[in-house]
Amino acid sequence: MIENKFQIEFLATSLVQKLNRKNIFPPLFNDPESFIAPAGSRPKKPTNSFLICRRNVSKEANRKGAHNMRVISKAAGILWNSATPEEKDVYKNIAERVYEIHILRSSNLVNSTSFKIELTTQPSPISHPLPFPSPSSILETTLNNYFNDHDNNQVIPFNSFNSFNYNDFDENHQWI
């Protein structure tokens, strides 16, 4: 893997030496419209200044016969890092113009589509909230369920002794 990295680095460095820097700084391809997605396609994130530079490096590299995008991207990085602030400013101005066009097109797209939803009535809630029972009613229900035999409505007396005697119940767990 390290050998491959050095090979790409070597190829990129040799490509930089072959490229005509005058076609890259200032950019030969500088039309902001060419960096915007076609009108019918989904609007994408606008291109930044480095990607515009990389596109110019790619076009120049293709004219010189280089087509490997790994090598071209590495060469674009080398050129970008060695560029002066004035050279980068040209690309930044193009990127700002691309951004402005992108905003205009995407706002026109949103305004022209039928994605606007107007609510005529309030949406119904997904579920209706139920009142929470009071603690006293919960206690009363629990005690009634515990002390009442529902089969024959017989009340089971509460054992108030501190000790519990299993002999007070039959095999069906009924009070004797």
Automatic annotation (TrEMBL):
Keyword Disulfide bond: no
Keyword Secreted part of the UniProt annotation: no
InterPro entries: HMG_box_dom, HMG_box_dom_sf
Chain residues forming the annotated DNA-binding region: 43-110
One function term, GO molecular function aspect: DNA binding
GO cellular component terms given for this protein: nucleus
Protein name: HMG box domain-containing protein
Naturally occurring in which organism (per UniProt): Rhizophagus irregularis (strain DAOM 197198w) (Glomus intraradices)
